[in-house]
Structures are given as C-alpha cells and as structure tokens.
Amino acid sequence: MTFRLTVLGTATPYPRPDNPCSGYLLRTDHTAVWVDAGPGTLAALQRHHRPDLVDAVWISHTHADHAADLLPYYYALLFADGHPREPVPLYGPPGLAARLEAFLAGAAPNPASAAFDVHELHDGHRAEIGDLTLTSHAVEHGLPAFGLRAAHGDAVLAYSGDTGPCPALDRLADGADLFLCEADGAGPHHCAPEDAAAAGRGARRLLLTHIGHTLTTAEATTRAGAPVARPGDTVVIT
Known about the structure:
Elements: E1 4-9, E2 23-27, E3 32-37, H1 41-45, E4 56-58, H2 64-67, H3 70-79, E5 88-92, H4 96-104, E6 116-120, E7 126-129, E8 132-138, E9 146-152, E10 155-159, H5 167-173, E11 178-182, H6 193-199, E12 206-209, H7 217-224, E13 234-236
Parallel strand pairs: 3-4, 4-5, 5-6, 10-11, 11-12
Antiparallel strand pairs: 1-2, 1-13, 2-3, 7-8, 8-9, 9-10
C-alpha cells in the first residue's frame, strides 16, 4: 500500500502566482488528510482530492499562512457543492476554534461546529485517522505550534510546521523516512536551511519547504544539501 505526500503550496508569508501558502495532502489507498490550510491550498487540493471527502484536517498553528483557507472551506462544505458525510475532524492548536468563531460570528452561536469537529492538540497528541497515525509534537514558534509525525505501517513522515531549532524538532525528525522541514530563515522562530539540515540528520530524507523571501531555492538547496518542495510534487514515503 502506498503512502504519499502531495505538496499543495509552500509560500510564505503570502501566496504567490502558482504557489499557495503552506499546505500538504497525505494519502494512502484509503485515507486522505489535509495538513495546513494556507491561502490558496483549498484550490490546489481540488486537483488531487475532493475537499468534502478528506478524512481530517490537521493545522500546525494559527498563523494565517497556515490556516486561512479554513474559512472558504467552511463555506464550501456547508453552502456550495460539498457534501460531507459529517463534520470534518479538524485537529489544531488551542485557540483555533475561537478564531474561526470570531470570523464566522452571526450565523449561529457556534457556527463552525456545523462544518468541523474540532480537536485541540497538545504535546504527544495522537489520533488514528483511517490507516494513518498522527502524533503531534510541540515546537518553538512563539505561540502554540506543533510538528507532526504521520505513520502508515512502518513508513513515517515528519513535518516541522513552523519552528525555530529546538530539541523537539530533532526528536520529531529522528528515524523518519521523509522529513519535511521549513527553512524560512527569518527571525528567531524559524529554521535557516542549516538548521533544517542539522535536525534532518536523523531522517532518511530531507525535503525543504516554506523558503523565506530572502532566499532562492538554489541558495536553500546549497546551504542545506537537500531539495526544495515544489507545488504539485508528489513524493512516495517508503
């Protein structure tokens, strides 16, 4: 059975032509999980999977470039041609539901619950979604933020979310078959390419993403010794 990652977008801090912000689709033969919902990723998702039929959505943190497309997703599920079987399980950091409520206020006392079954993440949070196991690890980003280890049988994907270098990032990557790590490089709460490379030494493969505007992909690749994810790419995780 195949476990694969499809890159929906990698841009930061706003979407660029042909590159949405952070978003990824994890799929096996039976399960689909949308990881981070940055602006533009809902449109990109539709090239690969029906949004109303994803099995869950997992959000690393509440910054808009990772979560803003939850709002149009809400309207797609409830007021357009989406036909979800039930509210979509939504896993995210504490405060995510309140942010959604603030944007959607007025429709009902708790309008988001019509579209989403919200679960708050914590360090070590574990969820079984179809034949995927999602384990969340708290990382350092100046607000509640989480990295992800997604396992399908013996195959493991690790995803940094947004974080500065920290021991949790090293543990997250250790033993992973594929480590998808941000390399924004701007400020104290992000990784430079060298930081991603250091954390990724424990993984079998490193793939950079979320490259900051001060870097070119060629510079990031040279500095980390690893390729950069491109929108539309699909990688098989073995």
